[in-house]
Amino acid sequence: MIDILLADDQALVRTGFRMILDNADDMQVVGEAGDGAQAAEMAVQLQPDIVLMDVRMPEVDGVEATRRICTGTSRIRVLILTTFDLDEYVYAALHAGASGFLLKDTLAPDLLSAIRVVARGDAVVAPSVTRRLLERYVGIGVAQAIPAASLDVLTEREREVLSLIARGLSNTEIAECLFLSEGTVKTHVSRVLAKLGLRDRVQAVVFAYESGLVRAGAT
């Protein structure tokens, strides 16, 4: 069972998400928070698997709440919810440790799928939206939370895999692109993350842009 904490300052929004999640056999909502400070406190108390975090909240916003949660533990995963697909708060939240983000108008099946992906320890990277965010905000002084590793530690194949991750491809798509088995791709991905000291695919995407491996506007 995936335990989920809802964090949104609008009670109606929380109710809507709860209705969706309550219909999933493998999920349960263990708490609701109305602001970022409460979300961080409840995360410590309840130890949910996932926090669905609204990025824009009064007082303590979703970015600071994410930072507090991810600094305190690596087990709890934060999935950011936003109304706007080009939102500077989202990029800051990724740096703070969020495992991805979704638009609030995401369809219910996609929301449930994203939660399951994040609960397995992977990250939700919406290719087009994430790419636009990175193109806009990489290199403009957002506080760095990504380890200062070097591309030199990667093999040529690992660089290829990293560049394809940055373009939003799944392991299956990378396997097809490079004519490899999916198992081999998973091994390459694990090695890339380990060598660069990255937590997940979201950090890998950010690293690929900030290191210059992938250029803004690249397809």
Automatic annotation (TrEMBL):
<feature type="domain" description="HTH luxR-type">
    <location>
        <begin position="147"/>
        <end position="212"/>
    </location>
</feature>
<feature type="modified residue" description="4-aspartylphosphate">
    <location>
        <position position="54"/>
    </location>
</feature>
<keyword id="KW-0238">DNA-binding</keyword>
<feature type="domain" description="Response regulatory">
    <location>
        <begin position="3"/>
        <end position="119"/>
    </location>
</feature>
<keyword id="KW-0597">Phosphoprotein</keyword>
<keyword id="KW-0805">Transcription regulation</keyword>
<protein>
    <submittedName>
        <fullName>LuxR family two component transcriptional regulator</fullName>
    </submittedName>
</protein>
<dbReference type="Pfam" id="PF00196">
    <property type="entry name" value="GerE"/>
</dbReference>
<dbReference type="GO" id="GO:0000160">
    <property type="term" value="P:phosphorelay signal transduction system"/>
</dbReference>
<keyword id="KW-0804">Transcription</keyword>
<dbReference type="InterPro" id="IPR011006">
    <property type="entry name" value="CheY-like_superfamily"/>
</dbReference>
<dbReference type="InterPro" id="IPR000792">
    <property type="entry name" value="Tscrpt_reg_LuxR_C"/>
</dbReference>
<dbReference type="GO" id="GO:0003677">
    <property type="term" value="F:DNA binding"/>
</dbReference>
<dbReference type="InterPro" id="IPR058245">
    <property type="entry name" value="NreC/VraR/RcsB-like_REC"/>
</dbReference>
<dbReference type="InterPro" id="IPR016032">
    <property type="entry name" value="Sig_transdc_resp-reg_C-effctor"/>
</dbReference>
<dbReference type="InterPro" id="IPR039420">
    <property type="entry name" value="WalR-like"/>
</dbReference>
<dbReference type="GO" id="GO:0006355">
    <property type="term" value="P:regulation of DNA-templated transcription"/>
</dbReference>
<dbReference type="Pfam" id="PF00072">
    <property type="entry name" value="Response_reg"/>
</dbReference>
<dbReference type="InterPro" id="IPR001789">
    <property type="entry name" value="Sig_transdc_resp-reg_receiver"/>
</dbReference>
